[in-house]
Write a structure and sequence with these properties.
The chain is α/β, with parallel strands linked by helices. It contains 11 helices and 8 strands. The model has no long low-confidence stretch (mean pLDDT about 95). Bound molecules: phosphoenolpyruvate. The site of phosphoenolpyruvate has 13 residues, from strand 8.
């Protein structure tokens, strides 16, 4: 049992997978199993093209909807992009920002991600801000420096009311989709550092309420011991969220630890 002010959150990042009908089927199964309870927050982040069918399917459940990205501008000549307001109109509650795949494949900088975090908060979307080090950075002993710089830069000029709705997801890049997971002790060490940085930048009362998720090959086999760590407040799940049974099992493991 975790004694924390923070409700655990299990969020699925479906990446570029599932057509809109496949997405509706997957979320339906998740919703039937864990969509009525409120002890653990459950969110799914499908591709933009499936958000409407998923929103419709979860209308009567407590599952929340998230997007995987957005542009910081409110509107304009940004071909192929989507604004925070558009996501709100699709009933999104969360938006994943700064995922390492976006940083790597689309060269997103901390400064650009910071603009997105601020725009999301202005539209009352909860950002799930992803941070994490590469294998080379970890091997150089730079993990805390790299993650700290990302947290500070991405949260620059953010303070006060509403910022407790930010979710940070620590995702060591070397653990994403590789089957390699940070050990619970390794993850807790970084989560503890992130909490300290949040305390420095946003103050203790907000930092205590911000959820810090772990992401990187989390699955039913390792989720329990990761969720047992005091500063691990849930998971951002990639591969294992595409299969209803494994995602549901991770939510059940979180429920066993919820207050
Ligand atoms: C992710 O990409 O956010 C992620 C955690 O992926 P996986 O669970 O597949 O490592």
């Amino acid at each position: 049992m975790k004694t924390s002010v923070r409700r655990l959150l299990i969020a699925g990042n479906w990446k570029m997978n599932k057509t809109s009908s496949e997405a509706a089927e997957l979320v339906e199964e998740i919703s039937l199993a864990v969509g009525k309870q409120l002890d653990v927050g459950v969110a799914v982040c499908p591709p933009f093209t499936s958000m409407e069918s998923v929103a419709h399917t979860i209308e009567d459940s407590n599952i929340q909807l998230g997007a995987q990205n957005m542009h910081p501008a409110p509107a304009g000549a940004y071909t192929g992009e989507i604004s925070a307001e558009m996501l709100r109109h699709l009933f999104a509650s969360f938006v994943i920002l700064g995922h390492s795949e976006r940083r790597t494949c689309f060269s997103e900088s901390n400064a650009f991600i910071n603009r997105k975090v601020r725009a999301a908060l202005e539209s009352s979307l909860k950002p799930i801000l992803c941070v994490g080090e590469s294998l080379a950075e970890r091997e150089r002993g730079d993990t805390v420096g790299v993650v700290g710089a990302q947290v500070r830069a991405c949260l620059d000029e953010i303070s006060g009311e509403g910022s407790e709705s930010i979710v940070v997801s620590y995702e060591p890049i070397w653990a994403i989709g590789t089957g390699k997971t940070a050990t619970p002790a390794m993850a807790q060490e970084v989560h503890g550092e992130i909490r300290r940085m949040l305390t420095e930048t946003l103050g203790a009362s907000i930092a205590d309420r911000i959820r810090i998720l772990y992401g990187g090959s989390m699955k039913p086999d390792n989720a329990g011991e990761l969720l047992d760590q005091p500063d691990i407040d849930g998971g951002l799940i990639g591969g294992a969220s595409l299969e209803a049974r494994s995602f549901i099992r991770i939510v059940e493991l979180a429920l066993e630890r919820a207050q």
